[in-house]
Amino acid sequence: MAIFAGVDIGSTTGKALLLDEEGKVIGFHITEATPKPERTARICLDAVLEKAKAKEKDIAYMVGTGYGRVKIPFASENISEITCHATGAKWLCPTVRTVVDIGGQDCKVIGVREDGKVREFVMNDKCAAGTGRFLESQARVLGVKIEDLSELSKRAETPALISAQCSVFAESEIITQLNEGNSVENVVAGIHVAIASRLISLLKRVGIQEDLTVTGGCAKNDGLIRILQEKAGVRVVHLREDPQIVGALGAAVLAQEKWRKKMAA
Amino acid sequence: MAGAISFNPEKFQTVFNDNLAAIQNMVEAMQAIGDPREAGPIEVMKAVDVYIRDLFSAVEQGKKIIWHEFLFFPEIFHGFPNVHTWMTETLCGFLPVLDPEGLTPYVDAAENAGLPPDVCPADKGMLGCVLEEIMPPVAIACAPTSPCDSAITAYQILGKLIDAPVFQADMPYWQDDRGIELYQHHIWKMIRTIEEVCKTRMDWDKCREHIKLANESVELFIEENEMRKLSPCPHPGKLGFYQFLLLTVASGTPYARDVCKAILEDSKKLASQGKGAVADEKIRLLMYNPDPFYDVGIHDWLEDEFGAVTALTFFGHATMGLIDTKTPETIVRDYAWKMMNICMARQYRGPHEFFMDDFIHAMENWNVDAVIVPALIQCKHGQATHGFIREACKERGKPLCLVEFDPMDPRPASIETIHNTVAEFLETQVLPYK
Amino acid sequence: MKELAFFQDVIQKSSNDFVRQWKEQGGKVIGYLCPNVPEEMILAAGMLPYRLRAPESRDTSEADRYTTYLNCTYCRHLVDEALRGRYDFLDGFVGTNGCDQMRRVSDIFRAVAYKEAAEQKKFFLEYVAAPRVPFDERSLSYYKAELARLKKNLEAHFGVTISGDKLRHAIRLSNESRRLLKNLYDLRKSDKPPVSGAEALSITVASTALPKEVFNQSLKALLGALDGRVAVPQYRKRLFLYGSELDDPQWVKVVEDQGGLVVADGICFGARLFWDLVDESLDPMEAIAIRYHERWSCPRMVDQDRRKQRIQEIVRDWKADGIIGERIIMCQLWGGERVMTSLDAKERGIPTLWVEREYLPGGTGQLKTRVQAFLESME
Questions:
Q1: Residue B311: strand, helix, or coil
Q2: Is A163 in a helix, a strand, or coil?
Q3: In this structure, how many other beta carbons lie within 10 angstroms of the beta carbon of residue B246?
Q4: Pair B17, B215: CB distance under 8 Å
Q5: Closest by Cα among A242, A256, A206, A211 to A21
Q6: For residue A81, which residues of chain C lie inside 8 Å, CB to CB?
Q7: Which chain A residues are within 8 Å of C366, Cβ to Cβ?
Q8: Long-range CB contacts (< 8 A, 24+ apart) of B16-21?
Q9: Any C CB within 8 A of A105 CB
Q10: Which residues from chain C sit within 8 angstroms of residue A119, using beta carbons?
Q11: Each residue of B105-153: pLDDT tens digit?
């Protein structure tokens, strides 16, 4: 039986996902990124093959995506993470028309057409504002675990106002807030507000069309998502799979499509 | 999308009624404070109230409204019967005064439409107000190709958004007769275009009356400038900002002239009593580039905290002259020359000397101890003039503070940040040497 | 292909061997930034017009004594090179008010970089103030007067006469370059263009860096040798390139390596350099003024309707599938044009991608991702 693989190599994590011929997800794996994309790809591919009890030779087609996509020699082709995220999100939720991807080092908003193609997109990959990297570094400053950010944020009384446009300067603002006695909960909520504001401006550039969904690791941060939802004035639809693997899923779906086209030709 | 934005009466009414209420609150609050420094600003805000009420009436009466950029003083348009004027950037000027974040929704609207953040906030704000449908109706929009690239591109964009013609007059680069020749030709063209579009005819006698009022305002403004050379400086630093903005919207009206008159009379009275904005004037400052619109109170803070009066500000520097009302030809010619000499058009459009000459003249003639130059973050020619500014201040032994901010949006550099920068400057580079 | 490599090599540095030879033979070189300074006038004065670039600049630390991080990198690098004396092949510079930041470049050249040399009469400095409203008689007259002053001062400083005949000869040479380049661009209408966008940009940039006769000859040789050449056997989509000053073929190559073949453009080192001819039937100074004032404009001119029209025609005639626009960060004029072009493109359903860049190469990963996603969205 042919299987299809999607491998999404980002700068912080690598993800691999397998689909069977019926389009069922038979396994996925998330690993920490190594400095070499090829190595990261190998690690997560091997891991997912083991999880799914499958063999590499059964892979009929593999699509690589993410920033390290051109460095995956065993992929059949590579496709941009923008297209893969749109495809993956739509596959999980056919009514999706806007995808916000909050990645490790970049964030993007993708407008999706009815046929699943990308209508428009806008990316912020020039600064850390609105990315997982920003949340990570501030969690460290606050002395809390990333997994706890959501709960802390929900317990806030009033989100702290963090006005710095740049995440580098936001750090000193955050430290000042703590020194002046503001609670960790309020500060975490404030950080979420700052990130959500940055995402909202990207959203408005592309135009918010329902259904709206969020992908990437930060989508698991419910505190952040609630604030984003409020600001967007629109419900955020939760996807039934781990939001971190949407890119890899999209890549696998496209792998299946490409293979089918090839067979038909 | 071209021509897609049309007049939205509900939004317009809501926003402008809110503004009237805000102005009323502001005036009441200033009156309650009872600080003599508020006297001039109170008169200006009351005049703005009149300006907005007049706009409401004009809209109700269905009058044709000419939008004009701030570098087209309105006196000339008042010569057209049954037509009303609206200074396109009015809200950019006054919303941040009423509320520091007042303009930010409109800046965001413009950026969301694809305008880069590094365009002047006056243009982002103006286009944002258009996109958000809060502007009054428009029959024709008029702007010079000045003071800068931001304005040139903004009005071309405006032409695609509104269902009305946009007339851009070719402002010459050089400051000479040949330039006046060119510019007056474009002003004539503008007049003819307005006549056609608004189905009106310039009434030169009516125009003459308004120009005379505008001339009076200029004379009063120039004299006020001279008064500010005195020590103690009779009026506070923030007054120049208010007076200039008033003239951009209402130059040529009797009430604007009356405000300028009241300001000068007050100046003279204070001077005769040896009084000034600051009881004990320790430092005299020059602030030469637009003030932070959301924190014009920075001058009050300087006066209270440091006894530092801003003897002259960029907006408060009267660099324009009078218009000879003898014939239509002299009117148009002198109006062209006046517009080439209002602040920003005069200093920003040519070689750096156009800015530097006025800057140095101000530095040397208002008896200042130190200089603050707002390093406006979107002002490209301004940014590239810093080297020359530094050299000129060094040559004259004047301490210089270049402080970065966005003049209409407090988010890039907060009010606190701006104050901290200026305070550090005064404490380390000025006060120890006084 | 050696005829092509010739152009690619000659633009690698701030100057080239032809300039060096010219100088060795006693020739003079006049630098400029924006074509509002007509090359024909410099040619007619017997000098080599050279459009300045800064491909070797690595740093803006010298420039940033005057410019700041909020100015565009094109301008900052030009100033930096000038202050470091790397344009020492110049005998003069004519500035113009192309845009606000370019105005200050001219000011810094005049008041700092070349101040001393100009005072010692060893360097020629002049300025052409171009108006902004095309098809207006008085604006045209203003421009004519500026050119007349340039002519007079060139003659006075260098002790030359710019006669009608010399101008006519210069116009013929420049027009020939324009016709040859138009031929080149016409070949790109085909389904298998003989040159890529990157290659075409090397050629158009080279036209601003070489003696006219050398350029014309070399381009003729290239056109002769292109028969049957297919620059890119397989590409995904055809693109029209638009945007801020761009003189780096490598940037275009990154776009094209993703499969987006640039078949036409509207950039100022590209098509807008040569699209309009000078009318050889008119008085030469008159003809030059009209051509430069009314040519295919950049957003500094109040002329958006015509630009919109021109883009429409070229996208149609060169069968472009989409538009790729680029803006140098901090470029206000192209930021505004971006808004206007996007509105137009949306109206007509032309897929458009706008990206931001700096003057020097860098950030190619980010560019590749966006271009790839854009091409995928069109497939």
A1: strand
A2: coil
A3: 27
A4: no
A5: A256
A6: 369, 373
A7: 123, 125-126
A8: B16/B52, B16/B55, B16/B56, B16/B134, B19/B52, B19/B91, B19/B94, B19/B95, B19/B98, B20/B49, B20/B52, B20/B53
A9: no
A10: 377
A11: 999 999 999 999 999 999 999 999 999 999 999 999 999 998 999 999 9
Give the C-alpha separation, B60 to B393, whole Å.
Answer: 53
Other CB atoms within 10 Å distance of the CB of residue B14 = 12
Consecutive H or E run containing C237: strand C237-243
Helix (H/G/I), strand (E/B), else coil: A89: helix
Distance CA C205, CA C209 (A): 7
Judge: A121–C373 Cβ closer than 8 Å, yes or no: yes
Which residues lie below 8 Å from residue B320, measured CB to CB, with a gap of 6+? B218, B338, B341, B342, B346
- pLDDT (average), residues C238-247: 97
Cβ separation C369–A83 shorter than 8 A: no
Amino acid identity of A73? P
SS3 assignment, position B126: helix
Give the residue ranges of chain B where pLDDT is below 70.
1-3
Mean pLDDT of chain C: 97
Cα-based distances in Å from B359 to A33, B194, B348, C98: 56, 36, 12, 24
Looking at beta carbons, which residues of chain A come within 8 Å of B412?
165
Please give the C-alpha separations between residue C60 and each of A170, B404, C244, in angstroms, as whole numbers: 27, 20, 19
Q: What mean pLDDT is predicted for residues C263-279?
A: 98
Pairing of strands A25-32, A13-20: antiparallel
Beta strands C29-32 and C352-357 are unpaired
Report the phi/psi class of residue A216: left, alpha or beta, with left for phi > 0 and alpha for psi in -120 to 50: left
Single-letter residue type at C213? E
Cβ A255 vs Cβ A61: under 8 Å: yes
Q: Are B128 and B108 in contact (CB under 8 A)?
A: yes
Element (H, E) at C139: helix C137-158
Interface contact C107-B386, CB threshold 8 A:
no
Give this prediction's pTM. Answer: 0.94
Which of C70, C366, C372 should one mutate to test binding to chain A, selecting the residue with the greatest count of A CBs within 10 A? C372
Picking from A80, A117, A119, the nearest residue to C369 by CB comes out as A80
The reply to whether A121 touches chain C by the CB within 8 Å rule is yes
Structure tokens at B113: 């439409």
Q: Which residues of B touch C67 (CB under 8 A)?
A: 383-384, 387
CA-angle at A88, arms to A84 and A94, nearest 5°: 130
Check CB contact under 8 Å for B145 and C106: no
For residue B154, give the 3-state DSSP assignment.
helix
CA distance B244 to C19: 53
Looking at the complex, does the CB of residue B181 fall below 8 Å from at least one CB of chain C?
yes
Omega cis (within 30) before C88:
no
In this structure, is the dihedral angle defined by the CA atoms of residues C262, C264, C267 and C271, taken in order, positive or negative? Answer: positive
pLDDT at C190 over 90: yes
